[in-house]
Design goal:
Layout (H helix, E strand, L loop, with lengths): L8 H7 L20 E5 L2 E8 L10 E7 L6 H7 L3 H7 L2 E5 L2 E3 L2 E3 L15 H15 L2 E11 L1 H12 L6 E5 L16 E6 L16 H12 L6 E5 L2 E6 L8 E6 L16 H9 L2 E2 L2 E2 L1
Parallel strand pairs: 3-4, 3-7, 7-8, 8-9, 9-12
Antiparallel strand pairs: 1-2, 2-4, 5-6, 10-11, 11-12, 13-14
Length: about 290
């Protein structure tokens, strides 16, 4: 199974922002500013929390989780995949969780532990604990919890779609893919997937280690019973594919960046940044489908 998310030296080379430092504890592979912490599975875990000034606690608000890539840190990723202005404008709580260390690099484990999984990190449980903690402190709309991620973080978003669909209303993946561990998703799952055709880390057409963008899309197209022939539009070097009319009126959308590399994309589509494309898609849904 394609679970070996953690073994690639090329991922270390390309994505890792964690270099070993003699002054660091060997278990530390990241550094965050102003991080919150929670204990899950006996391990201290971190996340960067952003509460918009527009939040007053009177009305329930959505929660957006955004997961960094392999080797990343939450606070650095918040600068790269910045959704704070959107959180202010649309009043939602924003969390950038921190992956735990494995062999000197931070990572996400989107699959249940055990079997041939190379990681013992209980990241599915960590996310559930984190949501429980935040919901005890803030007025969350529990039907509007969304997950997005870049690269290995995109894998984590798909892991939540598979194994924590009782909590997650919609997901987004940027330069990511889905692993072969697919779980008991218990409601139609809106999905938006952004991927570059020149991605040298998680190839657009897949390889022996990774599923292709289309095979990942096909899983959700079939699961959601959407139309099989998409509506296609394009602008500059970006093609948009919309598979709609799914169960509970959900859709699966794909932004294909022609020549795009393994990045959180800086190019815009119809004036929308990657962060806007992600938020504008997921926010159309709650856990019951189209709002």
């Amino acid at each position: 199974m394609k679970k070996s998310i953690l073994l690639f030296t090329f991922l270390l080379t390309i994505l890792s922002s964690c270099e070993k430092d003699d002054n660091k504890n060997p278990e530390e592979c990241y550094s965050n500013n102003n991080a919150q912490s929670i204990v899950n599975d006996g391990i201290n875990r971190e996340y960067v929390l952003y509460i918009p000034n527009s939040y007053d606690g009177k009305s329930s608000v959505p929660l957006m989780l955004n997961f960094h890539g392999f080797g990343g840190s939450a606070s650095d990723y918040m600068q790269e995949a910045d959704m704070r202005s959107l959180a202010e404008a649309d009043t939602f709580i924003l969390i950038y969780p921190q992956g735990s260390c494995l062999d000197g690099s931070s990572h996400w484990n989107p699959c249940p532990t055990g079997g041939d999984n190379k990681s013992t990190a209980d990241d599915l449980g960590f996310v559930e604990s984190m949501i429980s903690e935040i919901s005890s402190q803030y007025n969350l709309d529990m039907e509007r919890i969304y997950a997005a991620g870049y690269s290995n973080g995109g894998m984590m978003a798909y892991g939540l779609a598979n194994y924590k669909s009782d909590l997650i209303a919609a997901v987004a993946s940027v330069s990511g893919t889905m692993l072969d561990c697919t779980g008991p998703t218990n409601h139609p799952m809106p999905v938006v997937h952004l991927h570059g055709t020149s991605d040298g880390v998680l190839p657009y057409n897949g390889n022996n280690d990774w599923n292709s963008a289309q095979s990942t899309l096909d899983h959700w197209i079939n699961f959601n019973n959407t139309v099989l022939t998409p509506t296609i539009t394009s602008e500059n070097n970006i093609e948009r594919y919309v598979y709609d009319q799914g169960d509970s009126s959900v859709s699966v959308e794909h932004y294909k960046f022609i020549g795009g590399e393994h990045v959180w994309f800086s190019a815009t589509y119809q004036g929308q940044s990657t962060s806007e494309l992600v938020w504008n898609f997921v926010s159309r849904y709650d856990i019951n489908g189209l709002r």
